[in-house]
Structures are given as structure tokens and as C-alpha cells.
Amino acid sequence: MFGAEDHGRFQSFFAAASALIRSCTSVRFSTSRTSLSQTLGHLHLQTSPVISGNNEVRNPLEAAFTKQRGEQGAGGARLTAPWSCSLAILFAQFLLFIPSGDAQDRKPPSVSLNAARQSPAPDSTQPDAPLAAARTLLDQAQVSEAGHMVRQYLETHPDSADGHFLLGYILFREIQTEATLETTAESVKDIVVRPSDGKTRDEKVRDSLAEFTAGAKFHAPNAFDLKIVALDYVLLGDYVDADKWLTRSVEWNRKDADAWYYLGRARYNENKFADAISAFQQCLTLSPGNVKAEDNLGLALAGLGRNEEATAAYKQALDWQSKALLKNPGPYINLGSLLLDESRPEEAVPYLVQAVETAPREFRAHELLGKAYTRMDELQKAQTELEKATELAPENANLHCMLAPVYRKRGLTEKAKAEFDRCAALSGSHSIPETPRP
């Protein structure tokens, strides 16, 4: 038997349901969707803006991702009149069995989007045990062996999303064996990768993206997968797409400090300095004392002309690594560069000397130190540093253009002419006219 409260509730609902059934009108259910559109910055560009040329890779992945998410993202799903009527009747019947009291207020447990995207942990009784074994090999840095195992698995399980995603990650890791992620993520143009299979770096990156696209046809990638997709785009120099996928990744896993860091890097390279600052600050919240994030926070602040704050950030990064055995040259280089921009070469020299000592094969450190000595009219020291920089980065036109006048001032006419000619040739062949900031 119903209580008076239950009976009254049923009568109220039944009246509303009856009205809906009689009308048999369409009902539209809309689902909210976080906007991922990006606002382009209008700040002065230090380098040419990146124009995305990866539609053949990006669009299939986007389409597969959208298809997997369902048709509800943009406008919601429509329930036609017959379905509306049936739903009202079924819900009225369901109401008859709802007990009164506190039980009706209980809600189903919420599941985070990121957790829902994670594949179940494999074990030896599951059909994807080979993938678990491949992951173990990958953890042991046996990248080629892991790739071979996953390729064999996909021959008999071509519809395995996890298999395709893992192979996409393995291909990314293969690229890392030729050049470290930190270098490629922050100075893509300076990397020369020679994969052992003869493919260029860009070809291997596209192979990696193709695997993520294939896997997305069967179920949506998770936050980690999207981070790797984004870093593939970083390797292609496509920071717009890197920004897009990293944005989705951090929406699903807001505790991934590395994803926030790389999102900051992508936005910095888009000259979206305010957005980059926000991302680096998120990284620092999750990873206090992170020297790279603090250093790059300084770069983003300098991009907005907030030089005093940038200087404080660089010095904070230097303080954090003061007792570290292996130091990051970035804060030394960037602080020295900022001091040169402010026409303070004498103050810049000690930081740049430390940068050279920390990373003797970093041409940027030698370049800036040579520039500082040139402005101080210490031409012999300037020549030594700029010669070392050109030795480390011989295709960089800017270095030859800087070295030529130093030779001329020192009376080394033939060397000066050779460097001027080299400067003109490289500039004419569209080489890097200015050294990109790290």
C-alpha cells in the first residue's frame, strides 16, 4: 500500500505524464560540452607563426574521437514523439516502485571521465596479456622488442584500441631514443633524427598519430594517450594542435604536472603568454620546486614585458637547483638573455659563463656570451664564443652574421668575407634567421 505522501506524489506525476502523452511532442535533451576553441594571440611574434599542415592526420583522429563520444556533443540527442510518450509511461511505471524516505535521494556514484577512459589493468588471464608484457618491456627500455610484440598482437586483434594506442606510444618512444623529449619539445628545429629504419622523424611521428587514429575508432583515448598525441604534434612543430590535445588531456587529468608544463610550452610557442603563465603556474602547484616550469614561467612573463617578475622567476629557478649535481642551463641562459635585452652585458656575463660551464654543447649559451663580449668590446673572447657556437650549429645563419663583423673589427678580412657570404647564403635558403629562445 502507498502512504499518503507516495499517493500524492504519484497523482502529481501521473497528471504531468498524461499531459505529455496526449501532446506527444518532441523532447530535446541537451548535454553540456566544454568549449575547446582557442583564441589566437595578437602579440608581436618573435618567430613566424606555425601554420598547421597536418589535416590528413588531425581530421581522422578528431572524427574518430567525435564519433566515439557519440552524436550528443554539439546539439544533444532528439527523442521523437513516440519515444517521448513511451518514456513517460515507463517512468510512471518506474515511479510506482520507488520507496519513500531517504532512499529516493540516493544518487549513483560519479565516475571521473579520466578513470572511465582507462583500460582495465591487464593480467595473465585476459586476452591482452601480450600488451601487458609489451608494457613491461617498454618500462625496461626495450622499445624495439615491445613494438614487435604489439605489432604481432595487432595482426590477430586489429580492433584492439589499447593495442593501437600502445603502438602509437611505442613509436613516440622510438623517436625519443634518437633525441630526448626535453630537447625536441623546446627546440624542435635544432634536432636531427636518423631513425634506424631509415624513416625520417616526421614519418615516424605520422605513423604514431595514425595508430592513435586507428585506436580511436574503437574507443576514445584517455588523458595520457592525448598527451602523447599532443607531443607528436610538438615534434611536427604544430603547436596549435598540440595546444588543443593537451587542453583536453588536462581537462581529463588535472593532476598531470607534465601535461600542464607542455601545455605551457605549446602556448608560449603560440605567443599566448598569459595562457602559458597560467599553465606553468598549474604545473608548479602540482610540482613545487620544478626548475623547468619556473624557468619557463620567466620566459612567459618576459614575453609580456614583465621583466622584473621574469628576473625573479629565473633567480628562483637558480636557487632551487643550486645544490643539484646536474643543473639546467635554461635559467642561466634566459636570465643572461634578458639582461642583454636590457643593455646590461656586464651583469649578463657571469650567468652566461655559468651556462657554458653547465652545458658546453649548448650553442645558445656560447652565442649569447659572444654577444655580451662583443658589446663590451672584448673581441677576442667574442670570437672564441661565436666560433664555438657556429661549430655546434653550422646551419644557423644568425651566428655567421654575428661572427663576420667581429672578424672584420679584428682585421681578419678573409674570414670576415667568408662569414658574410655564409650568412647571406643561409639567409637566402630560408634557414633560421634568428635563434629561437629555448
Characterise the protein shown here:
Among the domains are: 127-221, Alpha Horseshoe (Serine Threonine Protein Phosphatase 5, Tetratricopeptide repeat); 329-438, Serine Threonine Protein Phosphatase 5, Tetratricopeptide repeat, CATH 1.25.40. It has a two-stranded antiparallel sheet with strand order 1-2. It is built from 22 helices and 2 strands. Helix 13 packs parallel to helix 15 and helix 15 (291-303) runs parallel beside helix 17 (330-341). It starts with a helix and ends in a 10-residue tail after the last helix. By secondary structure, it is an all-alpha fold. 65% of the residues lie in helices and 1% in strands.
Defining traits:
two-stranded antiparallel ribbon, 22 helices, Serine Threonine Protein Phosphatase 5, Tetratricopeptide repeat, mainly alpha, single chain, 438 residues, globular, disordered C terminus
